[in-house]
Amino acid sequence: MDWKNSRIDLLLEQALVEDQAAKDATTAVTIDPDLRASASVIAREELIVAGLGAIPRFLEIFARLDRRPQAQTRFEVVSHPEIFDGVRARKGQVLAVIRHNARVLLSCERVILNLLQHLSGIATNTRRYVDAIHGTHARVLDTRKTVPGLRAIDKYAVLCGGGTNHRLDLSTGILIKNNHISLGGGLRTAVTNALTRRQSGQRVQVEVRNIRELEEALECGAEAILLDNMTPLEVKNAVDRIKTESRWIPTEASGGIVLENIRAYAETGVDFISVGALTHSARAADISMTITAE
Question: What is the pTM of this model?
């Protein structure tokens, strides 16, 4: 993840501005402006780490927002060589140590923790799904069901958890769903138009809900199939049918897939399984920050 990317930079800056971190009233009246401190970021449960690279970037942006001398002082963010985004951390393990001006650490504490908890929660949730289908052919995909404005970092957290990113946005692929079919003159017309009008390199994927729609999609030349809201048995039958085609057609299952049944879907032979819960239902990881004077 490029934490200095302009879009990510703006996101982190907005988080600091939203919290008015540079105008921390409590810290201003209780803490010596010259006090140095050390902050330990600690995993309070077993989790998959995501977002460590945002810590120094938050501090750099804070220095840009707050021109007072304490914000401009040197800082250091260190972690054990075995701790980095994507690894499993134990309960009680220190993820990072931040050495900086005490006022800056207190003012940035909440936004740093909010991001680490959110991203590590997604990464941890993703790893559960990935572990559940270990040994099968299938790969776990995320979706566009992300918090508005956070999609890039949410999808990064999925990668940290061992998942695979689906479309980043509507411009990065063609996926003909039920509403496109009903508004676009039917499945055959929608697929034909997509194949004719697409840009170079764009694969035409079609969502189907039953064998009848599957047969029509294959006949029309669909290049990838999304099997929506089917049972594991229905998915297996559909995958077996698709494999009889002379061309390779990647398959994806979605809809109603949870941790308890994802293994059954993976064992159908489907290539991909998309799970909106990776991002929209992930619980924030339990991470704390302990700050002590140096």
Answer: 0.95
